[in-house]
Design brief:
The mean pLDDT is about 95. A hairpin with a 2-residue loop joins strand 2 and strand 3. The protein is α+β, with helices and mostly antiparallel strands and about 575 residues long. The chain is built from 19 helices and 22 strands. The chain is about 35% helix and about 25% strand. The protein binds iron/sulfur cluster.
């Protein structure tokens, strides 16, 4: 859209919302200001402005204010132009295909929307257009003054969606070269909330910048919209830059293909980075790819996992590997939604695989990220609640950079692991987002995140029995369902038995004790239960012949090589 009869001038002052004085060709002139917003950051004395001469001789003011220079930008200030440029742009075939009708100023319920569009495939679309001129540090915001009318429009658009229409709020950024758009919470919090509600109701929220010159304006490129947390958006660059400089060299970061990321992420959910390294190398050597994992024998698989705990996770990994083989022809799926469908893969792991391996802009929110973001935003939401995690995922998804998704996700995780640490004081002095962090500003780092205590674990007393002769030890397989399902264990019974009771029990199962030695007590903590164990070493004669229970009698070397005994029995099993 091109303006004619444009003249350059210098802004002097603005006595009221509608009028301003400016110097044009050495003369003081009265200028009509169409944009009735405050625009105080733009209309400063001495600012270079562009005005249009009116062709209407009846008008009192001969000039209309069209644009103003701010730094090296020209900002269009014509409040009537956004509707026109969007209409032209849609008529040119942008945004919708096969547009049949574009009608301005269309009434729906109690609102008049700026544009109504119909397409060849019978889409009926209402669009409300908002011009944006308020800019600071590359961030543009709307409104620059409270606007109840704008809130009402948003509500009506939500209503239109329910009635089967499509609805858009289209923010026209009347300048070029901005970083993102965000609603202005300082001027009108109700508008910000209404915009979020509208989006949740299905209204599309779009922002486009414009190519602007002294005498023209055209819709140009889409601009990111941040409705959740502008502060989180500001953290993106420092987090990515910090991660690229300070990230630790870890084996799974060398070739981050989907399989390797997956294996490492499941292992890292069990234990510390340092402890994972040898497991990771060993596992990849045994099962170098999805096909090998899918075909692995269960005992070998469990043996490779021995010591990591949560054996169901590796069983699920095998199920998922089998899914990849049968449903995806052996190729790891490459979309977040497909990855999420694999057995044992939740939002975090799907986000980690899809962003680290494929660069997909999906969040990967683990405990580290929950802690960092809670502190950064000084959020007192309980991170044990699924709704808090979902909310954090939404906030991150909105700001995650499409060209650095992996580094941003990993940066947040890494900051949580080595800077904003879980135990003890966070190292704010070396934190790349310290200048943004609200918890630091309020000195409440140690009070966050809010985490309700998990339910107390059930205590189970057990007696572990090492039945052995001179060469072998008795072990048995656990049931296929329940705790430590399908793994091998030292025989054990509920309760704390006395020496006499152990002798009786031995006799009952056909293993007559020659000597019984009491061992030290031990404790093992599972997620919902604690085993408080005592143990006895029971020397017997001729193990295999007399035992009535289904046991395996194996030498230490054989146990180490073949049978996976969970770490719950660590205190009672001697390793080679
Ligand atoms: Fe955590 Fe401190 Fe960084 Fe805030 S400034 S995110 S509290 S390390």
């Amino acid at each position: 859209m091109r303006y004619e009869r444009i003249t350059q001038g210098s802004f002097l002052e603005r006595p009221n919302r509608f009028l301003a004085y400016a110097e044009l060709a050495g003369k003081k002139e009265v200028i009509h200001v169409k944009n009735t917003g405050r625009c105080a950051e733009l209309l400063k004395p001495g600012a270079v402005i562009y005005v249009q001469e009116s062709q209407n001789p009846e008008r009192k003011t001969k000039w209309d204010l069209i644009a103003v220079e701010k730094g090296d930008r020209i900002i269009n200030m014509d409040s009537q132009i956004p509707n026109r440029v969007v209409q032209d742009w849609i008529e040119e075939g942008n945004l919708f295909e096969d547009v049949r009708l574009v009608k301005p100023e269309t009434t729906y319920c109690n609102s008049r929307f700026d544009l109504y569009v119909e397409t060849g495939d019978k889409r009926k679309i209402f669009i409300e257009v908002k011009g944006v001129t308020l800019e600071e540090n590359g961030v543009v915001r709307f409104p620059d003054a409270p606007s109840e009318r704008a809130v009402k429009h948003l509500e009506e658009l939500g209503h239109a969606v329910k009635e089967g229409y499509e609805a858009y709020v289209f923010f026209v950024i009347q300048m070029k070269g901005v970083r993102y758009f965000t609603p202005n919470r300082d001027t009108h919090p109700a508008f910000c909330d209404a915009l979020k509600r509208a989006q949740a109701a299905g209204v599309h929220v779009l922002a486009y910048d414009c190519e602007v010159s002294a005498d023209s304006i055209e819709v140009n490129e889409e601009v990111p919209v941040v409705l959740g947390s502008p502060l989180l958006k500001e953290s993106v660059e420092p987090v990515v830059a910090w991660y690229r400089k300070y990230r630790r060299d870890l084996p799974w970061r060398e070739h981050p293909d989907a399989y390797r990321v997956w294996v490492s992420e499941i292992m890292l959910q069990q234990t510390r980075v340092e402890a994972v390294k040898p497991y990771y190398e060993r596992f990849l050597e045994a099962f170098p790819d999805v096909a090998a994992l899918a075909e692995a024998e269960e005992d070998k698989l469990l043996k490779m996992w021995e010591g990591l705990g949560y054996y169901n996770r590796v069983r699920n990994m095998q199920k998922a590997a089998q899914q990849v083989m049968t449903e995806h022809n052996g190729r790891f799926p490459q979309s977040y939604d497909e990855i999420l469908k694999l057995s044992g893969i939740g939002n975090y792991t799907a986000g980690a695989i899809s962003s680290f391996a494929y660069g997909i802009a999906k969040p990967a929110v683990d405990g580290n990220v929950l802690r960092v973001v809670s502190r950064l935003l000084a959020s007192d939401a309980d991170i044990m609640k699924a709704s808090t995690r979902a909310q954090m995922e939404r906030l991150i998804e909105e700001v995650i950079p499409i060209d650095a998704a992996a580094d941003f996700n990993q940066g947040l995780i890494e900051i949580g692991a080595i800077v904003c640490v879980p135990n003890g004081e966070p190292k704010c002095e070396i934190c790349p987002v310290a200048h943004l962090c609200k918890a630091k500003a309020q000195n409440i780092q140690m009070e966050l995140p809010v985490k309700t205590k998990a339910k107390a674990r059930r205590i189970e007393k057990r007696t572990v029995l090492i039945f052995r002769d001179n060469e072998t030890v008795a072990i048995r397989k656990r049931p296929v369902k329940g705790l430590l399902a399908g793994l091998y264990e030292l025989p054990n019974v509920e309760g704390h038995l006395t020496r006499k009771e152990v002798i009786e029990y031995g006799k009952e199962i056909g293993l007559t004790p020659i000597r019984v030695k009491k061992l030290a007590s031990a404790k093992h903590i599972f997620s919902h239960v604690e085993w408080h164990m005592i143990g006895y070493e029971v020397l017997v004669d001729e193990l295999e012949k007399n035992c009535s229970e289904k046991m395996i009698f194996a030498g230490r070397e054989e146990i180490d090589r073949k049978y996976s005994i969970p770490s719950a029995f660590e205190a009672y099993i001697e390793r080679k």
